[in-house]
Specification:
493 residues; 7% helix; mainly beta; Porin; two-stranded antiparallel sheet
Length: 493
C-alpha cells in the first residue's frame, strides 16, 4: 500500500503540471534538442512540426544514426524529453537527463533557440591529434542548513553533503571516440579525473582505496584519520572496441543502473537522490558488450561486484540491460547479480532498476525510476537485507534559458544495510546499521538558468524526512527531518 500511495502522489503532481502546461504552442520548440548526443556527436536535422507528412519518418530524427566517430544510436525523443535511455556512460553513452549541460557535444548540437545558447562554448584546448580531445568543467556549490549541524554535514544527503561552500567537482576528460560510422572496426578510449569534495562518493575499492577500504590515492585528516575533505577519484578509465552495431567496453566505467549520474553535468539538480548513493552501484570494473538496433539496445557483461576494482573478495557479477525508445517515451531496464561483500561475510546480491521517461507536452517531461535490491548475509551470516524505492521527476521548460524541475523520492532501507555506510567525513562512518533501517523521503524543487553555452546555475530547495528509523539521521542525529537551500554553478571548458 505504501508503494501505491507514493505512485499516486506522483500522478497527482504530474496531472497538476499537465494542466498548467495546457495551451502551450508547438512552435515554441527549439530546432535542436536540449540534450547532448553521445560521446561521438553529429549535427541533427531540425525537428518536424505537426503530424508527419506522407513518407516522413514517424520519429523526429532518423531511427538509426551513424555519427562520425560513434556507434549507431536510437532516435532522439521530442524537445525536452530525455534522449533515450537511462545509464549515462552505458547504453552506448546516452546520458541520463535531458535538462542539463552537454560538455562533450555542445559544440556540435547546441540547445535552446536563443543565439547565446546556440553559440559553441569556449574551450580551453582545441581538439588534439588522432581524434583525441581534452575537455572539462568545474562545479562549485553552496548549501545552507538552518539546523546548523555541529559537524557541518547534512546527514545522509551526499555530494552537497556539507553545510558549506564546496568545490564539488573539477572534472577532466581525455577521450578518443571510435572512428566507426556504423560499420567497420575501430577503437576508442576515455579517462575521467574528478577532484573535489565529491571524490569520496565514487571511490572504487582497490583503485582509490586499498582492498578493504583504507585510503590509497588520497589522504586523511590529521585530527582523527577520517577521509580528507578534498581528494582525487578516477571514475572512468576504459577502452572501447567498436564493430558495426557492437561495442565492447573494457576497464573501469560508470554503472548503467538508475537515472542520475555522478558528473554534475549529468543532472538537473545539485543534490542527489538516495537511490544514486545508497541504492545502486556507481562504478564497475570489468567488461560490457553493447548491441544497438533500430529501437532497442541490449547490453551484457561481467564486472567485479559494485564499486570494486580489486577487493578483498573478487567476485564475478552479471551486469546487463535492455532499452527501448519510441516517439514520446523510452524504457530502460537493468539488472545486476552476483556475490557481494557484506559487513562480516559475503552473499548473493541482486538488483534491478527500471527508468521510464516520457514527453507529456512540448515543454513538460516526466521520469519514473524504481529500484529493488536484495542481498544475502548483508549484515551478518543469515542476516539478509532488502532496499527499494521510487523516484519521480517533472521538468518544465519555460524558455531558452530557464527550466524548472521537481523530484519526489521514497527510498526504503528495510534493514539498515545501506544508510549505515553514510560518510560523515570528520567522524568516520555513521552509526550501526540497525538504527538507520526505515524510509527516507526527499522533495526537491529547483531551476536551471543557462545564460550561455558554458554556464549553468542550479538553485534548489529540498526537504528531507525519515520514518520508522531507530536513529534520527539529521541535525547531528537529533532530528528526523531537514530543510536545505543550495545553489551551484557549472562552468564547462
Amino acid at each position: 500500500m505504501e508503494l501505491i500511495r507514493h505512485l499516486a502522489i506522483g500522478a497527482i503532481l504530474c496531472g497538476a503540471c499537465c494542466n498548467a502546461a495546457e495551451g502551450q504552442h508547438i512552435d515554441w520548440i527549439a530546432p535542436q534538442p536540449l540534450a547532448p548526443q553521445s560521446l561521438a556527436p553529429q549535427p541533427l536535422a531540425p525537428r518536424s512540426v505537426g503530424a508527419p507528412a506522407v513518407g516522413e519518418p514517424l520519429f523526429d530524427r532518423p531511427v538509426v544514426t551513424a555519427p562520425v566517430g560513434g556507434e549507431p544510436r536510437l532516435a532522439r525523443l521530442p524537445a525536452i524529453t530525455p534522449p533515450g535511455m537511462p545509464g549515462g556512460n552505458a547504453f552506448t553513452e546516452w546520458y541520463r537527463s535531458d535538462l542539463k549541460l552537454a560538455p562533450d557535444d555542445l559544440d556540435h548540437n547546441s540547445w535552446g533557440s536563443g543565439k547565446a545558447i546556440k553559440l559553441a562554448p569556449w574551450r580551453l584546448l582545441p581538439p588534439l591529434s588522432d581524434g583525441w580531445s581534452l575537455t572539462g568543467f568545474m562545479d562549485i556549490g553552496a548549501t545552507a542548513n538552518p539546523d546548523q549541524p555541529a559537524n557541518r554535514f547534512n546527514g545522509p544527503v551526499t555530494f552537497n553533503d556539507r553545510n558549506d561552500l564546496q568545490l564539488n567537482q573539477l572534472y577532466l576528460t581525455l577521450q578518443r571516440a571510435p572512428d566507426n560510422p556504423g560499420d567497420g572496426l575501430s577503437w576508442g578510449s576515455r579517462v575521467d579525473l574528478l577532484f573535489g569534495t565529491d571524490y569520496i562518493f565514487v571511490q572504487s575499492d582497490g583503485l582509490e582505496t586499498k582492498p578493504g577500504g583504507d585510503n590509497a590515492l588520497n589522504g586523511v585528516t590529521a585530527a582523527n584519520g577520517a577521509p580528507a575533505l578534498y581528494g582525487l577519484a578516477i571514475p572512468q578509465a576504459y577502452v572501447d572496441l567498436a564493430c558495426n552495431r557492437f561495442r565492447v567496453r573494457l576497464g573501469h566505467f560508470y554503472s548503467i543502473a538508475g537515472y542520475e549520474g555522478v558528473a554534475a553535468t549529468s543532472n538537473f539538480f545539485h543534490s542527489h537522490a538516495y537511490a544514486l548513493q545508497y541504492g545502486e552501484p556507481l562504478t564497475h570494473s570489468g567488461g560490457l558488450v553493447s548491441w544497438t538496433g533500430d529501437q532497442m539496445t541490449v547490453q551484457a557483461g561481467v564486472v567485479n561486484q559494485w564499486n570494486t576494482t580489486n577487493g578483498i573478495n573478487d567476485e564475478a557479477t552479471f551486469l546487463g540491460g535492455i532499452a527501448f525508445a519510441g516517439r514520446n517515451s523510452s524504457l530502460g531496464i537493468t539488472a545486476i547479480s552476483g556475490q557481494a561483500d557484506g559487513f562480516t561475510t559475503s552473499g548473493q546480491r541482486s538488483m534491478y532498476s527500471v527508468v521510464w521517461q516520457t514527453a507529456i507536452s512540448d515543454r513538460l517531461a516526466y521520469v519514473l525510476q524504481h529500484d529493488l535490491a536484495y542481498q544475502e548475509n548483508a549484515l551478518a551470516a543469515n542476516d539478509d537485507a532488502t532496499w527499494y524505492g521510487i523516484t519521480q521527476y517533472l521538468f518544465l521548460a519555460l524558455n531558452d534559458q530557464w527550466r524548472l524541475g521537481m523530484r519526489y523520492e521514497w527510498f526504503r532501507d528495510a534493514d539498515g544495510a545501506r544508510l549505515a555506510s553514510m560518510y560523515v567525513r570528520n567522524g568516520g562512518l555513521g552509526l550501526p546499521a540497525a538504527g538507520f533501517a526505515g524510509a527516507y523521503h526527499n522533495a526537491t524543487f529547483g531551476a536551471n538558468w543557462v545564460p550561455n553555452a558554458n554556464l549553468t546555475v542550479r538553485p534548489e530547495v529540498r526537504w528531507d524526512w525519515s520514518a520508522d528509523t531507530g536513529v534520527a539521521p539529521f541535525a547531528d542525529f537529533t532530528s528526523d527531518s531537514q530543510f536545505t537551500i543550495a545553489i551551484d554553478a557549472i562552468y564547462i571548458f
